[in-house]
Design a protein that fits this description.
By secondary structure, this protein is of the alpha/beta class. The protein is built from 29 helices and 31 strands. Strands 3-6-2-1-9-11-12-10 form an eight-stranded mixed beta sheet. A seven-stranded mixed beta sheet has the order 22-21-20-19-23-24-25, with helices on both faces. Bound molecules: adenosine-5'-diphosphate, aspartic acid and magnesium ion. Adenosine-5'-diphosphate binds at residues 9-12, 39, 208, 230-232, 235-236, 238-241, 265-267, 310.
Length: 823
């Protein structure tokens, strides 16, 4: 029976309870040959390294700290071991602590610690955790065969070189053979992290080196499997601390795991893989806190349908760009550049050169930015002076985002998805690199965007829901209906379309409510009544446009001109805008153009279907006609639900003023009915439609017949309502005139291709489409080159909070589809 190697990271052996859990996991193992590699208890390596640093600074606190670390181990021993066992354990622990304080005293005197001193002290954590654990297994005696403690310093021989620790295999193999009879069956408890060099001096395998220890032992023991136990369910599609929806990847190839690890998926250390790959030993990553979960299998031929397996970021990166016409066609520039960096000991994470050879850029750890800038300046000193190279530019505060997966090779469109997702999330890309293996696409971005970028790309590959941050302005009738509609659909959209809509702010003219996560829409009214703070549109927009969320949209359900004036800035800043508010689109033409420009250059979307005909598909229909090459000859219709109602009901029997009064009472008119009767609202809608097909209309260009008598244009609403009957006779006359000819009165807006726009009361035959509508219906008639004999008609309820909110909701989902959601 072959060996199986289990490695438990610091998080799995953090305290007594964890260590006991690890004992049960190993006791459940049925094979006779089990090797267990342990890290130091969580945080102990850091703690020990800190002791050395404190001693170097000659602060006296290090002894206190050492006592703390000692007490932690003694405490675990007291909890888990028998009294005798704990006493024996603590005795050796105390002896080690005495050695350490001796070393620290020397460090204090010299005021500097050589690296081998640091290694020596740091390595005690693994000695303590494994001694304790070995004793525990012995005392519990639930495993067949002997339990043997193995000090890896006596087995693993490494030499540190430029590429890190290199295992000396022949020496290590013979050391193991000396230590362990080939026939041994039982449990080995092995220190992770530490090793020796050829001269027998203690060294380490580098930070997080216990993973490496496990695979070295895996190779030495010719293990059939290596299990790396940690505190997450496996390798996740992204760092779970930054992408809470990250998913466990069921299987990975060695190369995929290597790329992910190298590019920051800290769960497994990149070096770990090499010895396992050479011998094709499968590596399983599992959660010691949930041992029954399947985990991630890393092997030569993984079974997985996913093309992209994971997305990672490396933070604290600097980008150096070397630019100059003098480099074109000159061989050896790259060699000089990277040779100079190598001589300075600076390792390069990513390189990218355009095919023009006009510039080369590379990414390095930010800590080396200044040094790298100087090295490159020096290496190309004469070229810089002579102008063959124009500049060496160092950009700090960058990050690298890497998308990893074997399946990307030979499959077109992956890069487009990555760049599309970043573009939609308004993340600027500074440099790009894709290896010829096509297993990894890496981009350099600004560090402040890294979480947002990570989430956006992660979502684009359906590894997590698309998250959209929403700010709602104007929780009046339409806004409230929209919040309720959204609330009732959130779960369905999450389950069915992987879409995560989060309302994170509500703002009225008086106050605003902001939520870090999201406002619970099931009880938004209560929360809104209860709280809020003074309203500030700038603060509101910044909050909605959170750095860590990929997409932001402001939905303006107010009718405010003041709010509409902010759209251009929001669109330019990367915030999408959805609105039923007509003010922006029917305001000055220059502002309208600025809005469209802002959206175009920032790649944002501005959607306003509900500005005309509430939820009816009017704007979208017109847009489709235009986009498919049809030509508009005219568009006309009844665009006001209020005016539609008034003239549907008015049959000459009751005076017109009585009908207006009744409509006002039913809430069918604006509080001041003059806002409807003036026709301005209809004119605005006509302008919106005209501009949609490229007709340059201003409000003043529309010939509007107002139904507000000039005498009543000013003055209070009450006065207006009181005096309106004075004009009943005039309206009655117009009605009878029409009736005499078998016609009806309708308030119609009309625009033709030449840009002539009229709004007013017209007489229509009883058979006319506009004569036969119900209640507050809107009707819009498009006459085009294609729809000429029989025009295209859109008809239906054109007012009311529910249908208007429905139209806005439709725009919101259209936006999400543009951003990559499959709805
Ligand atoms: P251990 O103590 O077991 O060695 P580490 O802290 O070294 O654990 O590594 C595990 C941690 O790595 C996880 O808790 C997780 O927060 C982090 N991590 C970062 N990226 C990933 C990823 N892609 N998949 C899984 N975990 C990740
Ligand atoms: N204890 C060591 C460290 O913290 C090694 C490891 O845990 O893998 O770096
Ligand atoms: Mg680790």
């Amino acid at each position: 029976m072959g060996w199986i190697v289990h490695k438990f990271g610091g998080s799995s052996v953090a305290d007594a309870e964890c260590i006991l859990r690890v004992a049960t996991i190993i006791e459940a193992e049925t094979g006779p040959r089990v090797a267990v590699v342990l890290s130091a208890c969580k945080g102990v390596t850091d703690g020990l390294l800190e002791l050395v640093a404190l001693a170097e600074q000659r602060t006296d606190t290090h002894l206190e700290r050492l006592a703390g670390i000692r007490a932690r181990h003694a405490g675990i021993a007291d909890t888990l071991l028998s009294a005798d066992g704990a006493r024996d354990y603590t005795r050796t622990l105390d002896a080690d602590c005495r050695d350490i304080s001796g070393i620290l005293q020397t460090v204090g005197l010299i005021r500097a610690a050589a690296h081998n001193i640091r290694d020596l002290v740091a390595g005690y954590g693994e000695i303590w955790s494994t001694r304790l654990y070995a004793r525990l297994l012995i005392e519990r005696a639930r495993r067949p065969g002997a339990v043997r403690w193995v000090d890896a310093r006596e087995v693993i021989v490494v030499e540190w070189g430029a590429l890190g620790p290199a295992v000396q295999w022949p020496e290590s193999e013979s050391a193991l053979a000396r230590h362990l009879p080939a026939s041994f069956e039982g449990t080995l408890v092995i220190t992770g992290f530490i090793a020796s060099n050829r001269r027998g001096i203690q060294t380490t395998l580098g930070r997080n080196g216990s993973d490496f220890s496990a695979s070295i032992f895996g190779a030495l023991l010719a293990a059939r499997e290596i299990v790396i136990w940690t505190d997450v369910d496996g390798v996740l599609s992204a760092d779970p601390r930054r992408v809470p929806d990250a998913k466990v990847i069921d299987s990975l190839s060695y190369s995929e795991a290597m790329e992910l690890a190298y590019f920051g998926a800290k769960v497994i250390h990149p070096q770990t893989m090499a010895p396992a790959i050479a011998r094709q030993i499968p590596i399983l990553i599992k959660n010691s806190f949930a041992a029954t979960k399947p985990g991630t299998l890393i092997c030569a031929h993984p079974r997985s349908a996913l093309k992209v397996k994971g997305i990672t970021t490396i933070d604290a990166v600097a980008l150096v760009n070397l630019e100059g016409a003098g480099m074109i066609g000159v061989p050896g520039t790259a060699q000089r550049l990277f040779g100079a960096l190598r001589d300075a000991g600076i390792s390069v994470i990513l390189i990218s050169q355009g095919s023009s050879e006009h510039s080369i850029c590379f990414a390095i750890p930010d800590a080396e930015a200044l040094a790298a800038g100087e090295v490159v300046q020096r290496a190309f000193d004469s070229e810089l002076r002579e102008g063959q190279i124009q500049q060496v530019e160092v950009s700090r505060e960058c990050a690298i985002l890497a998308v990893v997966g074997d399946g990307m090779a030979g499959s077109p469109g992956i890069a487009a998805k990555v760049f599309g997702a970043l573009g939609d999330a308004a993340v600027n890309i500074r440099a790009i690199a894709q290896g010829a293996s096509e297993r990894n696409i890496s981009v350099v971005i600004e560090a402040r965007h890294s979480t947002r970028a990570l989430r956006a790309v992660h979502a684009r590959f359906y590894l997590s829901p698309h998250t959209v941050s929403i700010g709602l302005i104007g929780p009046g009738l339409v806004g409230a209906a929209l919040l309720d509609q959204l609330g009732s659909q959130l779960q369905r959209l999450k389950d069915g379309a992987n879409l995560d809509l989060r309302v994170r702010g509500i703002l009225s003219s008086k106050r605003m409510l902001l939520a870090e996560g999201e406002i619970d829409l099931a009880r938004w009214r209560t929360v809104w009544q209860a709280g809020g703070r003074p309203c500030d549109l700038g603060v509101f927009a910044r909050h909605v446009h959170a750095e860590h969320l990929p997409h932001a949209v402001i939905i303006d359900c107010s009718a405010s001109e003041e709010v509409a004036r902010h759209y251009a800035d929001w669109l330019a800043a990367g915030i999408h805008v959805v609105t039923p508010n007509k003010k922006a689109n029917s305001g000055p033409l220059a502002y309208y153009a600025a809005l469209k420009d802002a959206a175009r250059s920032a790649g944002t979307h501005y959607l306003y279907e509900a500005t005309v005909g509430a939820g009816l598909p009017v704007v979208q229909t017109l847009r489709d006609l235009r986009e498919t090459g049809d030509e508009l000859r005219s568009v006309e219709g009844i665009f006001s639900g209020t005016l539609a109602y008034l003239f549907n009901v008015y049959d000459g029997r009751e005076p017109f003023s009585t009908i207006v009064r009744a409509a006002r009472q039913k809430g069918y008119t604006e509080p001041d009915p003059r806002d409807d009767l003036s026709g301005t609202d209809v004119a605005r809608k006509l302008i919106i439609l005209g501009r949609e097909v490229g007709v340059q209309l201003e409000l003043g260009d529309v010939a509007v017949e107002s139904l507000v008598p000039a005498e009543l244009a000013t003055g209070s609403v009450e006065e207006f309502m009181a005096r309106l009957p004075e004009f009943d006779a005039h309206m009655a006359a117009r009605f009878s005139e029409a009736q005499a000819q078998g016609q009806v009165l309708r308030y119609v807006g009309r625009l033709d291709a030449a840009g002539r726009a009229t709004v007013g009361l017209v007489r229509l035959d009883r058979q006319h489409a506009f004569a036969n509508i119900a209640l507050t219906d809107n009707v819009v008639r498009f006459e085009t080159r294609r729809y000429c004999d029989n025009p295209l008609i859109v008809q239906g309820p054109g007012a009311g909070p529910e249908v208007t909110a429905g139209g806005v909701f439709g725009d919101l989902l259209r936006l999400c589809a543009y951003l990559g959601t499959k709805i």
